[in-house]
Amino acid sequence: MENRLIPAFKRKYRGKKMILVMDNARYHNARGEDWTTPSDMNRGQCADFLRQIGVKRVRGEVRNHDRSFEASSFSKDERDGGPTLKLMREEMDKWLQSHPEANVEVPTQLVRDVRAGSRIIYTPPYESWLQPIELVWNQVKQQVAHGARKDRTTKEVEAATKAALQSIGGDRCTGTIDHVHRFIDKWLLTADAGWLGTFQSLDQLVAASAEERDAAYRRFMDGERHTGSNDSQKESQPSAAADDDSVGGRSKRRKQQGWHSTS
Q1: Would you say 39 and 80 are in contact if contact means Cβ atoms under 8 Å apart?
Q2: Sequence-ordered list of residues with C-beta below 8 angstroms from that of 41, at least 6 positions apart, any chain
Q3: CA-CA distance, 258 to 255, in Å (whole number)?
Q4: What is the C-alpha separation between 10 and 160, in angstroms, rounded?
Q5: What is the Cα 244 distance to its own chain's centre?
Q6: What is the pTM of this model?
Q7: Which of 9-18, 58-67, 217-226 has the lowest mean pLDDT?
Q8: Backbone CA torsion sign across 127, 130, 133, 139
């Protein structure tokens, strides 16, 4: 990203915002050296961090008593009147949750530096059927596989792969994207969509504000908690739904919902 993608984007689209769509692979969420992880920090590091962000005191329960600890005591051991390490880490966690800009993954930092308004959109993890590039890559692999023979060399495979990639024109890419969007529209109308089903099409979901999405999520979770409370009063029984969560079950559902490979 830093050495090839972003420089190429800046040269070709000078002054434009970058909207980068990536899957949720771990290396696409790399953390920099400045990433703060309270659970990995010792007392001295926690104390320094809390002072740097301006925390004057921490409060919490210690040995069944509510206590308040001034910043001057953060570095002290519990026996010398300092707060517990757990209490300081909890205070840090609360601050980090209320300041999401403090911990930003490296890819997000790089994209934001392109221009104000640039951002990354991450696709759902382990759901390749929602990613047009995966379907395009599947088409490429099929084309290369058609020419397979026992004595084919690595260079021939490389040449066949390049030829297959070059055969994927703009119309084919657009068709693949439209195919995925149509499937998402169908999926949003099923029970599998969960709270996202509040928005009955991809267009509605994209148009919804962050506040509208948060409200839909809270309404759904409140309903789930109410349903779970009622279900807990019943004797649990084995259900075919459990098997439906397997990879095979998901594939079966997708076929029932109209999903198929793009040709």
Answers
A1: no
A2: 49, 89, 92
A3: 5
A4: 31
A5: 24
A6: 0.52
A7: 217-226
A8: positive
CA 225 to chain centre: 24
CA 90 from centre of chain: 24
Residue 122, pLDDT score: 81
Residue 261: pLDDT above 50?
no
Which of 17-26, 122-131, 212-221, 251-260 is the least confident region?
251-260
Of 103, 111, 122, give the one whose Cα is nearest residue 26: 122
What is the C-alpha to C-alpha distance for residues 202 and 217, in angstroms, rounded to an integer? 16
Helices in 99-148 by DSSP H: which ranges? 106-112, 132-146
CA-to-CA dists, residue 243 to 60, 168, 246, 248, 253, angstroms: 45, 37, 6, 8, 12
pLDDT score at 242: 39
Q: Tokens 């009147």, residue?
A: 81
pLDDT value, residue 62: 81
Contact 261, 135 (CB under 8 A): yes
Amino acid at 2: E
